[in-house]
Amino acid sequence: MVRDAVAGRPTIRMRGDVSLEKIGGFVQIALNLPSNAGVADASDWNGVELDIFGNIQDYEIHLRTDALTRLWKSYRQIFTADPGWRTVQLSFDHFVPHCTDVLLDTHRLWRIGLIAIGRPLTCDLAFGGPRFTTSSRSVKERSS
């Protein structure tokens, strides 16, 4: 993870190669969500959005709450990072629990991760945000 400028915008950038050798691998950026209480209350929002610029690959966004005690547990959704800045809006309703039976509690969000995982690929993903949104669209192009 590095701070960088991509197409004229400051960004956080994730680069690397994912290999499936030796039981597989992944490349990840994970950030704690800002909060005075240790968790973020996003219950008044419908989802999360972020500005992305990528290399025509699918990536995952993972959300974690403070109820998930194991690193591999999360709520996941896939998005495609195309070349050119655009805003991706991801509804909380479309996050799928991974390795947990606990439902996503948007009152208790703790961490967000952007991940390249599950297949060999060269990762190059830049992003700005994230932020919570009330929009119901799944993906929209960034306005100039």
Question: Could you explain how this protein is built, in words?
Answer:
- This protein is mainly β and 144 residues long.
- It has one domain (2-140): Sandwich (Jelly Rolls).
- It contains no helices and eleven strands.
- The protein has a six-stranded antiparallel beta sheet, with no helix packed on it. The chain has a five-stranded antiparallel beta sheet with strand order 3-9-5-6-8, with no helix packed on it.
- Strand 5 (57-65) and strand 6 (74-81) form a beta hairpin.
- The radius of gyration is 15 Å and the shape is globular.
- 26% of the residues are buried.
- What's the CATH class label? Mainly Beta
Radius of gyration equals 15 Å
Strand content: over 45%
CATH architecture: Sandwich
The CATH superfamily appears as Galactose-binding lectin
Question: How many domains is the backbone divided into?
Answer: 1
List how many beta strands DSSP finds: 11
Write down the overall mean pLDDT. Answer: 88
Indicate the percent of residues in helices.
Answer: under 10%
